[in-house]
Amino acid sequence: MHIRNHDIMDIYRRRGSSRKRWSDQSKKRKQPLEIPIFIREYIEEILTVHAWKRMAQRAISRENIAAVMMFGSLYSTPRAEIIVLGRRESRRAKFDLQRHRGIHIVLKQGMIVTTYRNNTVQLRYRR
Fold first, then answer.
1. Which residues touch 84 (CB under 8 Å, ≥6 apart)?
2. How many angstroms from the chain centroid is the CA of residue 5?
């Protein structure tokens, strides 16, 4: 039996494609995040007027704020506290937090002062 070069390439391609499918199946899919209603109501109480305006301008929803407050890291500065949901926090969570990555929440005296999105999170804050 004589095997031609293109037959070997076909076998190799088939093996490679089956491996690719197998690796896709073995990846764990993260669950979608569902925010309870009482958390959304609590967030409405602690938002300032300025924060409402900034959320509307920057297309940041209450669901985004809730996800960042639940899974983000808290950093303190002399004037305020900042909660950030970066790459590290989104990888550790068992929920799908890709939509919420890069959102920062600035808190002062327990109230949300402003929110913004910064996808290149390079923090110089202290924990």
1. 68, 72, 73, 75, 103, 104, 105, 121, 123
2. 47
Q: What is the C-alpha separation between 52 and 114, in angstroms, rounded?
A: 8
pLDDT by residue (tens digit) across 18-70? Answer: 444 444 444 567 777 777 788 888 888 999 999 999 999 999 999 899 988 88
> Which residues on adjacent β-strands are paired with residue 115?
105
Helix axes 62-71, 37-46, angle to 10 degrees: 100
Alpha-carbon 72 to chain mean position: 9
pTM of the model: 0.69
